[in-house]
């Protein structure tokens, strides 16, 4: 019997700006574009995914924030409108999400067996967070695969970055075990930015790219350092210095996404594929993918 | 800037959904529910025509967001406590006040904007407060967000901008802050009957803050915000802001009759329902050691001016 496997891991940032800039029919506001370095990178990654055989996308998102462990989506379908609470002017997205409940339950059971506090979310009125929607739309605009969202436990704030690393690693291992046992081919998505300091004002035209730049140079240097380590296949080291990066750049990895994904993939020591880097309202965003298959792994940028 | 607004009362209420969705599951949650009900009656008796909410569970990044949709309708579900049920809502907002509040915020140097979108996710704390304090929507409301990066100066100026708008429009106002006291929750599932304040230290600090409230010493609590943040607030945001905003919005003094209607645990966090009624007299024994601020001028560019 074929074992389940993780066929790709994606670091897929979710500023709603990139969906806004694409003008998909599901999103109400209209834009004149913007953030091409990210959008074109995402388009490339979406094309790669079209050539990969997979059954499901599993996302860990920092915009479903839970304090009581990690929660898993536990109903077949979520059809609703998602309005971004921070950027409602940019993101009012009509979605119809299908969930792989069987896999979700298997992952939650595996987490529980590993001693991780966890819970299924079975309220039909629940609104799926915009992090999930943005990342999934950008890597799979056809929405033709089921997904599972896992919430982000706020252990960074409750304890420390180091505790977050430990807990997210344990969750990654538990999820990986469940995927293996499921026989399914799965794409993992860590939905977040790198450095994460925002400007607190917005240009009259949000997509005015003459106004877009990184919040400060220190954020940029950290982002570049981490991307270089990704290229060199030093993911164990990246996870090791993550607490310091989070401390200094408010990195959105504080939600556990990257640590979780890397632990599930066994801390890759091969180069990441880099699809693009750009700031969005001051935050640093990289699109990166880890392809365990060396014959399809590429140097993209 | 403007004459004193007609603030009839101030309320400090907890954000978690248990008093709304599950008051029968724990006696303490039930007592909080009863306290909300008492406040509902007092709001009604006070003759206010605006309920102005500052919610710590509505974070913003682009300045300060103010809810201006005249009639927001949706069904809200809490991120953690989804198993307690859904919160259907239909509210009546005072759009004129929201716009005026935005204008005065901008006049005082803040970046602010109104939001009025169908399906906008009104936060758990605001939904709980409005459903319990104003269940039949008799009184129009307004909600303002809590900017994640903002600190004392911005919060105080934001409170003063709210006063400007109250005065200009002549509203009779109930000022409502939605916030926990200590905000550390248990990180595991607990049976409702097992709920308690997360630690003795949190409980002791909460009780000390409640003494201040009972004495009507709101400005003193505002002055203690940084200490409170360091002692009993999980570092989700840079500071404990609600007391700064509330004190500024209510006039920066200690002259209130304070009443703690309930103090209970909500999954470990400190939940209190407190009423402050403006009064004559009042006490205060704190020396106010931080500058008052009327306008927000942003960063001070200290680095640019440094000659090293
Ligand atoms: Fe985000």
Describe the protein in words.
The complex is a heterodimer of chains A (about 300) and B (about 300). Chain A has nine helices and ten strands. The longest helix of chain A has 22 residues, at about 160-180. Chain A has one domain (about 5-290): LigB-like (Protocatechuate 4,5-dioxygenase, Chain B, 3-Layer(aba) Sandwich), CATH 3.40.830. In chain A, α3 crosses α6 (about 160-180) and α7 (about 215-230) runs antiparallel to α8 (about 235-250). Chain A has a six-stranded mixed beta sheet, sandwiched between helices. In chain A, β9 and β10 (about 285-290) form a beta hairpin. Helices cover about 35% and strands about 25% of the residues of chain A. Chain A has helices at about 15-20, 35-50, 100-115, 130-140, 155-160, 160-180, 215-230, 235-250, 255-265, and strands at about 5-10, 55-65, 70-75, 75-85, 90-100, 120, 145-155, 185-190, 275-280, 285-290. With about 300 residues, chain A is α/β, with parallel strands linked by helices. With about 300 residues, chain B is an alpha/beta fold. Chain B has one domain: Protocatechuate 4,5-dioxygenase, Chain B. Helices cover about 35% and strands about 25% of the residues of chain B. Chain B contains ten helices and ten strands. Chain B has a six-stranded mixed beta sheet, sandwiched between helices. Chain B has a two-stranded parallel ribbon with strand order 3-6. In chain B, α3 packs across α5 and α5 packs parallel to α9. The radius of gyration of chain B is 18 Å and the shape is globular. Chain B starts with 5 loop residues before the first strand and ends with a helix. The chains are: A alpha/beta (about 300), B alpha/beta (about 300). Bound molecules: fe (ii) ion. Fe (ii) ion binds near residues 131 and 252 of chain A.
């Amino acid at each position: 019997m074929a074992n389940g496997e993780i066929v790709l891991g994606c670091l897929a940032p979710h500023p709603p700006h990139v969906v806004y800039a694409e003008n998909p029919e599901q999103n109400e506001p209209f834009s004149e574009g913007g953030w091409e370095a990210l959008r074109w990178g995402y388009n490339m990654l979406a094309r790669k995914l079209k050539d990969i055989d997979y059954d499901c996308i599993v996302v860990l998102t920092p915009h479903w924030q839970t304090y009581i462990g990690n929660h898993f989506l536990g109903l077949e379908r979520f059809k609703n409108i998602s309005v971004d609470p921070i950027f409602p002017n940019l993101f009012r997205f009509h979605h119809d999400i299908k969930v792989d409940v069987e896999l979700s339950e298997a992952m939650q059971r595996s987490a529980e067996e590993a001693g991780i506090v966890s819970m299924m979310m079975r309220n039909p009125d629940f609104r799926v967070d915009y992090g999930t929607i943005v990342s999934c739309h950008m890597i799979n605009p056809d929405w033709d695969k089921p997904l599972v969202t896992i919430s982000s436990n706020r252990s960074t704030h409750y304890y420390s970055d180091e505790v977050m690393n430990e807990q997210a690693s344990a969750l990654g291992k538990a999820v990986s075990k469940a995927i293996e046992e499921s026989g399914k081919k799965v794409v993992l998505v860590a939905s977040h930015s790198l450095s994460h300091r925002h400007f607190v004002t917005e240009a009259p035209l949000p997509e005015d790219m003459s106004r877009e730049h990184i919040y400060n140079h220190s954020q940029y240097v950290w982002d570049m350092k981490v991307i270089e380590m990704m290229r060199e296949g030093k993911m164990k080291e990246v996870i090791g210095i993550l607490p310091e990066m989070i401390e200094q750049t408010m990195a959105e990895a504080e939600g556990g996404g990257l640590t979780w994904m890397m632990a599930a993939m066994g801390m890759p020591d091969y180069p990441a594929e880099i699809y693009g880097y750009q700031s969005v309202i001051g935050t640093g965003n990289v699109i990166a993918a880890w392809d365990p298959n060396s014959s399809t792994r590429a140097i993209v940028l | 800037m403007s004459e004193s607004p007609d603030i009839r009362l101030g309320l400090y209420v907890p954000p978690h959904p248990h008093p709304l969705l599950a008051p029968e599951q724990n006696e303490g949650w039930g007592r909080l529910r009863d306290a909300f009900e008492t406040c509902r009656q007092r709001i009604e008796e006070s003759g206010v025509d605006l309920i102005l909410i500052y919610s710590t569970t509505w974070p913003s990044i682009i300045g300060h967001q103010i809810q201006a949709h005249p009639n927001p309708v949706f069904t809200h579900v809490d991120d953690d406590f989804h198993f307690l049920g859904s919160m259907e809502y239909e509210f009546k907002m005072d759009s004129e006040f929201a716009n005026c509040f935005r204008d005065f915020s901008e006049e005082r140097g803040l970046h602010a904007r109104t939001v009025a979108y169908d399906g906008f996710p009104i936060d758990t704390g605001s939904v709980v407060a409005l459903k319990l304090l104003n269940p039949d929507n008799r009184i129009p409301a307004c909600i303002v967000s809590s900017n994640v990066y903002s600190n004392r100066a911005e919060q105080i100026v934001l409170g003063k901008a709210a006063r400007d708008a109250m005065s200009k429009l002549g509203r009779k106002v109930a000022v409502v802050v939605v916030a926990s006291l200590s905000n550390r929750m248990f990180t595991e599932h607990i049976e409702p009957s097992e709920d308690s304040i997360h630690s003795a230290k949190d409980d002791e600090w909460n009780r000390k803050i409640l003494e201040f409230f009972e004495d009507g010493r709101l400005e003193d609590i505002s002055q203690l915000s940084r200490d409170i943040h360091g002692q009993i607030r999980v570092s989700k945001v840079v500071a404990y802001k609600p007391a700064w905003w509330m004190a500024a919005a209510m006039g920066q003094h200690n002259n209130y009759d304070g009443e703690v209607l309930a103090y209970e645990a909500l999954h470990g966090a400190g939940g209190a329902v407190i009423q402050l009624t403006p009064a004559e007299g009042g006490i205060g024994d704190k020396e106010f050691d931080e500058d008052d601020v009327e306008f927000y001028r942003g960063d001070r560019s200290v680095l640019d001016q440094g000659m090293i």
